[in-house]
Amino acid sequence: MRVCQITGPRQVEIVDRPDPEPRAGHVVIAVRSASLCGTDVHQYDARLPVEYPRIPGHDCSGIVSAVAPDVATVDVGDRVAVKPSFPCLDCRACTHAQFSDCANKRLIGLWSDGCLAESLLVPASNVAVLPASVGFDAAANLEPFTVAINTQRRLGLAMGEWVVILGQGPIGLGQTRIAVLAGARVVAVDPRPEARDLARAYGAEVTVDPDADDVTTAVHALTNGDGAAAVIETAGVAATVELMPSLVRKYGQLANVGIAAGIGSLDVATVVARGLTVHGIGGNGGKGQYEAAIALIEAARIDPAALVTHTFGLADAAQAFSLAHNKTEPVIKVVLHP
Ligand SMILES: [Zn+2]
Ligand SMILES: [Zn+2]
After folding, report:
1. Nearest ligand to the C-alpha of residue 140?
2. Separation of 158 CA from ligand 2 center, angstroms?
3. 2-140+303-337 has which fold?
4. 97 C-alpha to center of ligand 2: Å?
């Protein structure tokens, strides 16, 4: 099979590797759509430590091409989405069937070879079968919505509350859409016009360009000076993290989703004085959340394919990574069709 591998910082090459064989409990997927997420881009630009060579990629969909004899849950020909982490099956969470909370879970494409390839070998428990109406590009972009479903379950907001979402990349946009479906009134913040346009299409009631307007003033004007019920941070930069306490009302909630080196810190004195609750939302969606996102696509409540701005063949993977890294034109999501 043809694969894309990262061989060093900003070094991408297309090579042949042996076709994977389905070992016990596993299935082989012919990859149809694979999206690049921040993790892949940080493998490419070496902001994440990574072994070389590595086939990156964990967000994908495709058609099952082979199954091990002991697999009864999936058949050859099934259209599937891939859940992006392998649980250890051994830790406290795994032994309680909370696989998404596994203490040792390993992202596909980071600790093992990933989906930027013609074929991918995964445990049968890592696939979710797709209804006929769910397209491959939608199914390769589930992760932002599963993270957002996880976030809303943690926040448990009442209907009609104001929620500020900082950053409208794919993760922030998924947060915007799911918060709207959960009954929130969303203020979406991002300096990029294309991101604010999609936030409005996803149902944000107000968008703010932080380069043009003061975010705190805007949020206080909408909330009678109280602040929002919750603030969700997805940009992963110090400026937005440190802005969070000024946007939330007393006894409100903060959800930190963005993560990167040099992310800044929350002011604990403010957290205590204002009675705030802080949630760390790691990982890529909990038990049942991939299935929930697929059901929402089928019901036409979410449209993950709308995130896709650029599509490349596998042979052009170097160009795809360069665009996702350098953002030389307006980019939300880059997908590859191996
Ligand atoms: Zn991802
Ligand atoms: Zn585990």
Report:
1. 1
2. 33
3. Quinone Oxidoreductase; Chain A, domain 1 (3.90.180)
4. 9
